[in-house]
Amino acid sequence: MKVPLLDLKAQLLPLESEIKAALNAVVDSTAYINGPAVAKLEHDIAAYCGAVCSVGVSSGTDALLVSLMALDIGPGDIVLTTPYSFFATAGTIARLGAEVAMVDIDPVSYTLDPAALQTWFKRETTKAGRVKAVIPVHLYGQCADMDTIMQVARNRGIAVIEDAAQAIGAVYPSADGLKKAGSIGTVGCFSFFPSKNLGGIGDGGMVVTNDEALAEKVRLLRNHGAHPKYYHSLIGGNFRLDTVQAAVLLVKLPHLERWHAMRRENAAYYDELLAGTGIRVPQAVYGREHHIYNQYVISVPEKRDDLRAWLAEHDIGNEVYYPVAFHEQECFRSLGYKKGDFPNSEYAAKHTLALPVYPELTRPMQERVVEMIHQFYR
Predict the structure, then answer these.
(1) Is residue 109 part of a domain?
(2) pLDDT tens-digit series, residues 105-142
(3) Which pTM does this prediction carry?
(4) At what angle do helices 60-70 and 212-221 cross, to 10 degrees?
(5) Is 42 exposed, middle or buried (0-12, 13-18, 19+ CB in 10 A)?
(6) Is the N or C terminus of the chain more exposed, i.e. has fewer CB atoms within 10 Å?
């Protein structure tokens, strides 16, 4: 039995006629840039996340980039983040000439460790005054521990940019009540890359915030800082969300909660099948109902790469997110970090493996995945 890591065709088939009708409507309208579907999606995503404002942009990477730009982050500034994430998290900071500073992840949730963040400020007293923002990453569909992070940020007067690219719909049980990912910090950033729980048919992203002035600045920056046309008060970029992507996402958005639920069911069944194997399954630290399982990432004690090759040999899709932590990337060598500086991130990079968890995955397919894992270790 062949089990792909992700099957976009399975998601498309029930929605195909509706998606194609939406695409035809965009084609017929000729409103290809900032068409009505973009404004509608912005409204609906803000409502879904419980945020005041939402601004469509061209990708999750550009959501991070334009948010940093809107906060006037640049040379001389420091932005703190985790070493264990997709490259855009750190890459966008460096792209603006700011310094990337890192703190380790929590070994259970793989998200930024608030205790490590507090330790950094106690240790780096000469640098602390240059910190402009912190970027916690809601990794694999689960929120970082935001209450402590927000308290540190408030005490220091710094912005919090939530990298929620993998976490649309994830819930954080704050002391102030349940909050959706992206709505907690100064700004939240989402990706609509096709593999995400809410994915388009190409690149797309969204910036959400409760600060209307900041949202307006993001709108300005996404269109070269121009308002009105040809009059530029800021130097921005071309970060607009295509109307085609917005139209597709509007078709998918009403199904998102059902897809989350199906992923949770798949995760629960994996947990059952893998019990007693010595493999560490993903921990839903706030309860399974608050996790959206963008990825189901196991941690294996040994021979991760051999296991990955074995699964691929038997037509079982799998992936390593992420094999090289930021501090060990060649492009960040100048930061002066060394192997051993972030042991939790390094361990995760060497021992974790993502298994298929998409909504349409069947139980026999999951059983096949786990049986092949059992066979490998036997």
Answers:
(1) yes
(2) 999 999 999 999 999 999 999 999 999 999 999 999 99
(3) 0.97
(4) 110
(5) buried
(6) C
Phi, psi of 183 (to 5 degrees): -100, 5
81 and 98 Cβ atoms separated by less than 8 Å: no
Q: Which CATH number belongs to the domain containing residue 335 in this structure?
A: 3.90.1150.10
Instruction: Report the alpha-carbon distance of residue 206 to residue 61 in Å, rounded.
Output: 10
Same domain, 179 and 314: no
Structure tokens, 67:
């948010």
204-230 pLDDT, tens digit per residue, is 999 999 999 999 999 999 999 999 999
Which DSSP helix (H) or strand (E) runs through 310?
helix 304-313
Two tokens, residue 342: 């972030």
- Residues 165-198 as b/e (b if ≥16 CB within 10 A, e otherwise) read bbbbbbbbeeeeeebbbbbbbbbbbbbbbeebbb
- Residue 240 · residue 246 · CB < 8 Å: no
Q: Supply the DSSP string of 175-195, one letter for each residue.
A: TTEEEETTSSSSEEEEE--TT
Count of domains for the chain: 2
